[in-house]
C-alpha cells in the first residue's frame, strides 16, 4: 500500500540521516529490525526446505534487496530486450504495485507480453499461454516459489550509505548475505561517485565472496514530450514521424533551462542529480511517494508552478500516469529516458542470458 507523502519523508530521514538524531532513531528501531531479521530467516528456511516447483518457462529473475530505488524496471526491460534480440520471445511477469510499471514495460517492450500477477507461478502459466518461450520476472528475488534459471539482484550505488540496515531501521528487505543465492549482483549507478561504487562492491564481495558483480549505469538519453504517450496525442500525430521526432530533445537541451522537477520513484535524489549534471536550472522540485497515484489536482498544481518555464521534467514511470491528466494549456511535461550501459561484468550477464536461452528447449512445447 502506498504511504503518504509525510510518512515517506519521515522514513527517508530515519534511513538516511547521519546526524545524532538519525542514529538515535535507528537505534530505537533496532529491536524491530531484529524481529524482521528473524522473520526473514524463518521464511527463507521454509523455502529452502520446500521442493522446487517444475519450470513452465525458462525465467530470469530481476530483483533487489531494498525497498525501491535500484532501477529495477528499466533493467528488467533491458533484459527482456536482450533476450528478444537473441531470438527469444520473452514475457515480462510482475506484480504491479501501482499503475505505472506495467505501462512502462509496455512502452519499452511493445512486442513482449506483459503479465501482471500477484502469484508469479500463475503469471508464468499465463505468459506461456500467451506464446512466450521465456520470461523476465520483475521483482521476484523474495518470491521464491516461482522457479527461475538465474537471479540478478540489483543494488543502488546512489543509495548505499555503508550499512545494510533491515526494515524498519533501513530500506533492506534481506541482509547482504542473501546475495549468496543469486547469480550476479548488479550495481546500478545514476549519479554515484567511483568511491561509492567501490564501497558497495567491497561490501558485496565480503557478504557473498563467490558472486559475480556487474556495474550498470543508467545514462540520461532523450527528453521526450510526455503527453505524446496519451491516446489523444497518438490520434493527432497519426503516422507523422517527423512531427513525432520534433517532440524530443537530447538531454543536453536542458543546459541552462528553467524547469520544474517531478518524481514519484524510489530514489528521487539520484534522478535530480542527473538533471543537475545536464545543466538544468530547478524552479521547483516536487517529490511524491513511490508509485503515487496522481490526481487531476496534483497535475494542476504542478503545472501552475511551472507556468512560464521550459516545462516539467519527470521519469517515464511518472509520465505514464500524468500524461492522460496533464492540463492541455499547461507548460510542457517532459520525461527523461534512460539508456542502460554495462560498465563492468558484461561477461557474467552474457552467461546468464545464455543459460536462459539454452533452457528454453526444456520448457517450450514442440509443434505436433
Question: What does this 3D model show about the protein?
Answer:
There is one protein chain. This protein is α/β, with parallel strands linked by helices. The chain folds into 2 domains: about 50-220 and about 340-365, P-loop containing nucleotide triphosphate hydrolases (Rossmann fold, 3-Layer(aba) Sandwich), CATH 3.40.50.300; about 220-340, Rossmann fold (3-Layer(aba) Sandwich), CATH 3.40.50. About 40% of the residues lie in helices and about 20% in strands. The chain contains 12 helices and 12 strands. Strand 2, helix 4 (about 100-110) and strand 3 (about 115) form a beta-alpha-beta unit. Helix 1 (about 5-15) packs across helix 2 (about 20-50) and helix 3 (about 70-85) runs parallel beside helix 4. The termini are far apart. Residues about 1-5 and about 230-245 have low confidence and may be disordered.
Task: Please describe the topology of this protein.
Elements: H1 5-16, H2 20-49, E1 58-64, H3 72-85, E2 90-94, H4 101-108, E3 114-116, H5 120-129, E4 134-138, E5 150-156, E6 184-189, H6 194-207, E7 212-225, H7 231-237, H8 241-246, E8 248-250, E9 258-263, H9 268-277, E10 281-287, H10 296-305, E11 312-314, H11 316-322, E12 333-344, H12 346-363
Helix pairs in contact: 1-2, 3-4
Structural class label: alpha/beta
Largest sheet: 12 strands, mixed
H/E topology pattern: HHEHEHEHEEEHEHHEEHEHEHEH
Question: What's the average pLDDT?
Answer: 90
CATH architecture type of the largest domain: 3-Layer(aba) Sandwich
Supply the number of helical segments. 12
CATH superfamily of the largest domain: P-loop containing nucleotide triphosphate hydrolases
Q: What radius of gyration results from the CA coordinates?
A: 21 Å
Report the uncertain regions.
1-6, 232-245
